[in-house]
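Q: Predict the bound structure with iron/sulfur cluster.
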Amino acid sequence: MTDAIPLPGRARVLDVIPVKRRRRRWSGSSGKAADIRERLEELAFRNGFSDLGVVAPEIPREDRERFRRWLAQGRHGEMEYMARRVEHRLEFEDWVKSLIVLTRPYPPLRFPKGKKRYAAYAEGEDYHKTIRRALLPLAEEIRAAGGRARRFVDTSSVLERSLAARAGLGFIGRSTMLLSRTHGPYVFLCGIKTDLVLPPDSPGTGTCGECRRCIETCPGNALDEEGLDSRKCVSYLTIELKRPRTLEEERLVGEWEFGCDVCIEVCPYAKFALPPVVPRRRGVER
Ligand code: B12
Ligand code: SF4
Ligand code: SF4
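A: Predicted complex:
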């Protein structure tokens, strides 16, 4: 049974199911796995993560093909590192038996009209550091149970969204964002590779319905039914592009200094984001 949440606009339903209710039950020889899973969930929630799921170390065929098409169409732009060691990206090391995937929420930012803007994820300490630190107690728990543990966060050789969707943490929207069950698009993704064999979760459910807000409002017109073309994405143009921008690229970038949050802000599922309460630097509010 799922709780359907009514949404603004034309998007329809996100299955928001309390974590405990969604979990499969394991018994008998799986008792040990269930125990460690429970301890990991507890540590995750205590350390600022909003959801945790487990997935087997494989990337489904449709995601592999989507990734190859994305490269073949040049949609990675000048991010050459994305085109390197493709097989390595689609396979996992032999020792990896399960992946524990997590979401970590972060709040939106509000800017006064007409001001230069930067993406909400860039506020505060570098999230790579914060998250690696927050994952440490979970990695230690796995090691204490005799397992190997390697943390990943924004690691380009791991297709994190594909894993998160299959681990049941949400679904991929037309913006290509993983829309989490708890905080919509306002989540980072990360995880731990381990050699422990843990029972996998069921894939996430949910749909954009007829909503196309992100496609319609994207300043670079970078989104279509196939996904995202980095070459037109303001986030790419302001963070990843190493050469000077052309006049046309400059026009797309507009008010954005670093990153871009338009496809996140317009998403009806963003209403699950944390409330903007804490005043921040440079007159910006959270
Ligand atoms: C390269 C990269 C970028 C590039 C390219 C983004 C892109 N959409 O491919 C650029 C610089 C543009 C970028 C921008 C941003 N990024 Co970025 N980025 C990455 C990185 C390192 C790799 C992504 C990748 O492999 N892309 C290749 C495409 C083909 O793969 P994919 O998007 O992961 O999609 C896979 C599946 O989801 C599925 N799929 C893809 N599209 C679609 C579409 C549909 C309709 C369906 C059904 C399925 C589907 O198939 C794909 C292949 O397996 C990941 C970290 C990681 N290791 O995964 C972070 C990551 C995706 N980025 C992240 C963030 C936060 C952002 C920004 C919001 C930052 C900002 N505010 O400026 C924007 C959002 C732009 C957007 N709409 O995607 C988060 C996303 C969290 C989330 N909730 O989804 C990640 C996961 C980092 C993290 N660890 O938290 N990013
Ligand atoms: S980050 Fe901005 S430019 Fe890139 S896809 Fe989203 S709305 Fe479009
Ligand atoms: S804004 Fe985009 S990602 Fe969000 S529900 Fe609408 S179509 Fe889906």
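A: Strands lie at 51-55, 98-105, 117-118, 149-153, 170-172, 178-180, 187-194, 223-224, 227-228, 256-258.
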